Amino acid sequence: MASASEEKTEKPTPKKKKEARKEGQVPRTPELGGWLGLLVVALALGPLMDHELDALRTLMATHLRAAEDPSVALALQLLGQAGQHILVTLVVLGAMVLVIGVVSALAQGGFYLSPKLAKPDAKKLNPLQGAKRLFGPHAAWEGVKVLVKSSVVAFLAWGAVKAMMPLVGGLLPIELVIHEVTAEVSRLILTVALAGLVMAAADYAMMRRRTGKQLRMSHSEIKQEHKQAEGDPLVKSAIRSRQLAAARNRMIADVGTADVLLVNPTHVAVALRYDPDRGAPRVVARGAGAIAAKIRETAAAERVPLVQDVPLARALYRHCQVGQEIPRELWAAVAQVLAFVLSRRHAGQHGGEHRTPRRTDELPEVLAGARRRRAVTTDHIG
């Protein structure tokens, strides 16, 4: 674990960021959705008002004609038509604002349900923590935001009111006044929305910087995370050692099934088994040093004949793994040794140490990289 005094100067890892996102700790500002919604309202207000003015003219003409023969049913019908126009306008605006709000929230960090944030936390009731939140840098930034937003909106609103002052007085037709007021209000809302988007971008940058600072990690935290992801090297080494020991024990147990053990004479040992139904002879055990000594000891106990053949034992040890067939180039040399061993077995003679029956120490060159067939999949041992 990282000590409390250790500085967190490193950028968060992808795993740390993923965990933070699941807990809802992402840079996010509610300002963006609100100002984008206001921008949509500003852009849609003009066309909607023109549509509603046309509908209002039609509705007024219908009302005037209805006044010639008034009735309760006709009044309710006209009221329903007026309500329908208002409802359609509000639904269209509300739907656009809702979609914009959802899209802006998803763009800032996706949609995550964080049960951790809903759990009761005693730290939230700590008065010291509350004081820090109330008088800390974040609270100061929120205060600056409110002051700037209020100043910008007040300044723009005052400019719009000054521009509409000549329309007041009743000298202009009402239709022209409504059109000009609508246009001026649309420009005001559009200007305020654009200014708000600039402030929202600054707020998002601030929140991103603040969240990045909170997620910073120390060197020891990164090492600990890497260790958890890759596994403790000591544990992995211990597991690997146990696996090798188990495989070595299985290999030593298979020495008793061998037909011959080729030795060098003490440094290298390779045990071979020949089954005519399975093709070429296969290596059932191999080893050097202490493992070779253990193989020799087991072979002597199991009465497996030991044949001292330095070049052949070295060649088999170098080019074969446990479970593999011997190289094709060494078939002839191994066949001479097996013929000698099998002839003694048929004569009732088992075990013992013998010199190689081969008359020459020369062996064909084994092609490098030649594929060897395996009887079973085993680990490299020895």
Automatic annotation (TrEMBL):
Stretch list, region Disordered: 1-28
GO BP field: protein secretion
Bias kind Basic and acidic residues: ranges: 1-13
Pfam families tied to this protein: Bac_export_2
Keyword Ion transport: no
The keyword Glycoprotein appears for this protein: no
Keywords, comma-separated and alphabetical: Cell projection, Cilium, Flagellum, Membrane, Transmembrane, Transmembrane helix
GO terms under cellular component: plasma membrane
Membrane spanning stretches: 86-113, 152-174, 186-207
Protein name (database record): Flagellar biosynthesis protein FlhB
Organism: Nocardioides simplex
